[in-house]
Amino acid sequence: MGDRMNRSGLAPSWRLIVTSPLSGAENMAIDEALLHSFDPAASLPILRLYGWAPPALSLGRFQKGSEVLDLDRCGLDAVPVVRRITGGGTIFHADELTYSIVCAPDQIPPASSIKDSFRVLTGFLLAFYRGLGLNAAYALDAVPEGTRLGERTPFCFAGRESFDILVNGGKIGGNAQRRQKGLIFQHGSIPLKNRAHTGLSYMREKSPEHARGATSLAECGIEASDGELRRGLVAAFKGYFGVELREDTLSPQEQIRVADLMSGKYSTDQWNLEGEGT
Fold first, then answer.
1. 220 belongs to the catalytic site
2. Residue 10: its pLDDT value, please?
3. Catalytic residue (choose from 74, 103, 156, 220)
4. What is the number of other CB atoms lying within 10 angstroms of the CB of residue 248?
């Protein structure tokens, strides 16, 4: 435990887990396994980076697939649907770099509220985008005065939260958080290409304006390899938090939890479509 804390009370070292592109079910099972295996008194905080293959739709924790998705269209196109353990709207995951964070509150800089912790935990993304030369800012600071923020929408990219990141007015990616027994879990997407219109085609409500506010790195003129983007993201994370990242893999305990979650939860429509059987 002594290795985990520095004098300021923050964690000086994090585990960096980079996984190859996986199915939606595998990705969500790994995220949940990392959360359930985390001991806030002894574990190093975690940054995980991953991708999606094949592309998949993820529902927010409290959404019902039958209410928000065009399930016939999903079936015809063989697009997998998986449920996140975080809230928010539906996301179509394709051509993106995804991150997840697992930590205890005392392992990161202090936040004045749960809402403010989004600012703390997305600061490295702001640094990453600005390091690419992009005019990135939080929605709170970038939208015109009087704009309503925080409205719930079935499709992730249709809404704006205070600490969503905008580039030239377009929302780039999305982030969601969950608190559990003194733990913080957060994950989010960095879109390499804009697939919002494709994702919208699988929703029951297909109003084109729901996808108009989204943007991506490609649309912002950034054409870099996945490896270059991962290295840039790691550098931004290290610089923003002032920490070291130690490359690691899933522990045997974490692998067992992944297998259990895959067989008992993420392989079932009961969980993925209806959110039951948790």
1. no
2. 74
3. 156
4. 14
